[in-house]
Design a protein that fits this description.
8 strands, alpha/beta
Length: about 240
């Protein structure tokens, strides 16, 4: 493990393999950290590091990463952390894999720095489907833990503002309007979700907004898992390796 420090922010990360860089944004909601990949049937650290340089990071205030929470923080705060880490590592362009909350994180990277993202894989993205209260409860549990650990560093008012900016909306993917997503043109691979936090409807809607995207419906269990893994690696070999 290594740590990138930027002022008060410390981002923990690991680098595996060599080649074109691929940033990994783990599942776990706001607890998105490297160890979460161990629970995924398709672990990109394991399947991509033989072909690419894979950078797995802990998001701010998850795992071993830390950073302040201020009143204006929101989706863009995490996007800037991700871009800053990749700049620190010397990667002007890179591909990205994101699972769960990694869906809107990827979308915000595509919005904020389209020239830097050459391809993305969105694995069971979070999204709206009669689940607003579940996401608010998820945020509240994370926020209560932080505030209890250090009330001065994580004040309730700042946490409440972050909650409002990130989750108190009715946007399908929470971070931006659908019209903005329609404008993205980089290669995308969508792996479907099928539960409360990762609704099948959200994967379907993302595919409608990104009609050029490749899509994998079944990928979590054998025999579909092997074919999905092969397609996953082939996607990055086609779109990331070609951008060198």
């Amino acid at each position: 493990m290594a740590v990138y420090s930027d002022g008060e922010v410390e981002l923990a990360y690991e680098v595996h393999g060599t080649g074109f860089p691929i940033l990994l944004i783990a599942p776990g909601g706001l607890r998105s950290e490297r160890g979460m990949w161990r629970g995924s049937p398709l672990n990109p650290i394991a399947v991509l590091s033989d072909h690419f340089q894979v950078i797995a990071m802990d998001q701010r205030n998850a795992g071993e990463s830390t950073g302040p929470i201020e009143g204006d923080h929101g989706w863009h705060t995490y996007t800037q952390d991700q871009l800053s880490l990749m700049s620190h590592l010397g990667h002007e362009q890179f591909a990205v894999v994101g699972m769960c909350i990694g869906g809107p994180y990827i979308l915000n990277l595509l919005k904020s720095a389209p020239q830097r993202i050459v391809a993305s894989a969105v694995m069971q993205t979070i999204g709206r489907d009669n689940n607003r209260e579940e996401f608010l409860a998820m945020f509240d549990g994370w926020a209560e833990h932080l505030h209890a650990a250090d009330p001065q560093a994580y004040p309730q008012e700042a946490l409440a503002n972050q909650r409002r900016r990130m989750f108190e909306n009715e946007l399908t993917f929470m971070a931006m309007d659908e019209e903005e997503i329609e404008e993205f043109s980089q290669p995308m691979l969508i792996l479907d979700g099928a539960d409360t936090y990762h609704p099948a409807a959200s994967s379907q809607r993302l595919a409608e907004l990104q009609p050029h995207a490749q899509r994998i419906h079944e990928w979590k269990q054998a025999p579909a898992l092997q074919a999905a893994t092969e397609a996953f690696v082939a996607f990055f070999q086609a779109h990331a390796a070609s951008s060198r």
